[in-house]
Amino acid sequence: MLLPLLSRLSNPISSETCWELITQGARVIDVRSAIEYAVMHLPQAENVPLETFKSWMPVQDKSEVIVLYCGAGIRSRQACEQLKANGFDCVINGGSLNDLMSTIPADCAKNFSLSIH
Asked: Which PROSITE patterns does this UniProt record tie to the protein (predicted)?
C-alpha cells in the first residue's frame, strides 16, 4: 500500500506527503532529545534521539517505511542519511514538528492530537 506512494516521491518531500505516509501506516520517529520529546510530540511517534541511532539501527527492519522529524529538520536529515548509509530503503525526512503540525489534514487532526506535557 505504501510502495505506490513511495515510488512517486521526489525531493523535497512535502509535509502533506508525510501525512499521507503516516496515515497509511509509516513508522514515525522523533529524533529530538528525550527532554524535547517529553515536552511535545506527535502521539504516534517513537523517540529515538539522533545520538542513539548507532545502537538502535542494527535491530530495526530495513524495509520498513519510516518518517523522521525533529525541531528544525536538520537532525531528521542527518538521521535519514545515517539510515540510508546503513541499508534502510524507505526513510523520509519529515522536517520539523511545527511543519508537520501546520499541515495536519483535517481527517487526521481528530485522530492525531499533539501530546503536550
From this structure: RHODANESE_3
- pLDDT tens per residue across span 47-83: 999 999 999 999 999 999 999 999 998 999 999 999 9
Counted residue by residue, the chain has a size of 117
The enclosing domain of 78 has a CATH number of 3.40.250.10
Q: Give the full edge-to-edge strand order of the sheet including 27-30.
A: 46-47, 27-30, 66-70, 91-96
Q: What is the set of active-site residues?
A: 70
| 53 domain residue, yes or no | yes
Which one, of 97, 94, 95, 106, lies nearest residue 65 by Cα? Answer: 94
54 within a domain of the structure (yes/no): yes
Entry pTM: 0.82
